[in-house]
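Is this the right way to post structure tokens for a design question? Let me know if I should format differently. Anyway, here goes:
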């Protein structure tokens, strides 16, 4: 290879105009998580998760593509190694057996209950305060250790989305919705039910969201690379700058 051509290739790679010869072509998948991962009307994927991965890919000299699926489907694709990165899952013991997680996490959620304002529901953090209540939960979601410990003793009704869980609540087919504030508030606004529902305190839990990858040696280096760049972004303030327009809380 001509030395001048080699130098030109390096310059173009540094400028991000061409991929490095060893660049990885990565597929990231997720579902519609407001502020984290969402498909815009023009087909572009927006949200903190997508913005962070784009920044990470530029830093590493990789290419990243994004696709949107139902949450359970997105998890399955990564678990089976048919996609490289799952955007935004909370970290649980059960998921540790299915994925490996890039450290650190990149956002934080408050997980809470919602009920209708015209009811007298109470929630004091105890199992007793949930007895006799029909609780709508979202398929494939994790709600933290406290909730999971009570799960077998609760009357749970699984909905495919936050929107449909809220519709169950408003139709009187559920007494509570277990969700997180970041996902719930935009849906409540879209449904025009802000004056009809209320958040119950205390929070069920707080959870940190991560990037998850297939288990095994094939993705270990990518896991470490993402974690290294994330730590740098957190330290130099870049992560906070990317999160600000979305109103997303950081760990």
């Amino acid at each position: 290879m001509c030395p001048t051509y080699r130098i030109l290739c390096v310059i173009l790679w540094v400028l991000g105009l061409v991929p490095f010869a060893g660049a990885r072509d990565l597929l990231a998948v997720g579902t519609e998580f407001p502020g984290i991962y969402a498909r815009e009307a023009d087909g572009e994927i927006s949200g903190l998760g997508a913005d962070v991965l784009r920044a990470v890919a530029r830093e590493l000299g990789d290419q990243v593509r994004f696709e949107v699926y139902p949450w359970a489907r997105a998890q399955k694709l990564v678990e089976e190694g048919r996609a490289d990165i799952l955007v935004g899952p909370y970290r649980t013991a059960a998921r540790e057996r299915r994925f490996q997680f890039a450290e650190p996490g990149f956002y934080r959620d408050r997980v809470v209950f919602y009920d209708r304002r015209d009811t007298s529901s109470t929630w004091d953090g105890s199992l007793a305060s949930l007895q006799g209540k029909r609780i709508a939960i979202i398929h494939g979601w994790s709600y933290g250790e406290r909730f999971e410990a009570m799960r077998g003793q609760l009357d749970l009704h699984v909905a495919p989305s936050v929107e449909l869980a809220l519709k169950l609540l408003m139709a009187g087919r559920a007494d509570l919705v277990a969700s997180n504030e970041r996902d719930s508030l935009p849906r409540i606004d879209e449904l025009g039910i802000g004056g009809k529902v209320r958040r119950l305190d205390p929070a069920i839990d707080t959870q940190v969201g991560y990037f998850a990858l297939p288990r095994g040696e094939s993705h270990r280096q990518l896991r470490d690379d993402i974690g290294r760049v994330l730590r740098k972004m957190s330290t130099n303030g870049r992560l906070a700058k990317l999160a600000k327009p979305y109103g997303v809380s950081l760990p």
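Format looks fine. Someone answered above. Worth noting: The beta strands are 25-30, 38-39, 45-46, 63-68, 85-90, 99-116, 134-138, 155-159, 176-180, 197-214. Confidence is low (pLDDT under 50) at residues 16-21.
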